[in-house]
Amino acid sequence: MSTLSTKKLLNSKWTKLNPENKEKHFLVVRIDRDEEEQIVDCVIEAVLSRRQSHIKWRDLADSTQWQSGWSR
Predict the structure, then answer these.
(1) What is the dihedral of CA 2, 10, 54, 18, to 10 degrees?
(2) What is the pLDDT along the chain (72 residues), one digit of tens a residue?
(3) pTM, entire model
(4) What total number of domains does the chain contain?
(5) In this structure, are residues 43 and 28 in contact, taking their beta carbons and an 8 Å threshold?
(6) Is residue 2 domain-resident?
(7) In terms of C-beta density within 10 A (0-12 exposed, 13-18 middle, 19 or more buried), how is residue 69 classed?
(8) What are the backbone dihedrals phi and psi of residue 13, each rounded to the nearest 5 degrees, phi first?
């Protein structure tokens, strides 16, 4: 697992290593925080279909599932 900067998470680009429905590239479009500035919700959007999904932001640190940036 790699480390993620929560300050740079919004609008960051991600590649899913095991794409589903031809959705491979994603963008973090929303981050919700609580009163203590802890992330409580993260929404990613597929670039191809514009479909949005909620994800646990820490899952993006799993290098077996996600890669930072957009790659082929």
Answers:
(1) -50
(2) 456 788 899 999 999 999 999 999 999 999 999 999 999 999 999 999 999 999 999 999 999 999 999 987
(3) 0.88
(4) 1
(5) yes
(6) no
(7) exposed
(8) -105, 140
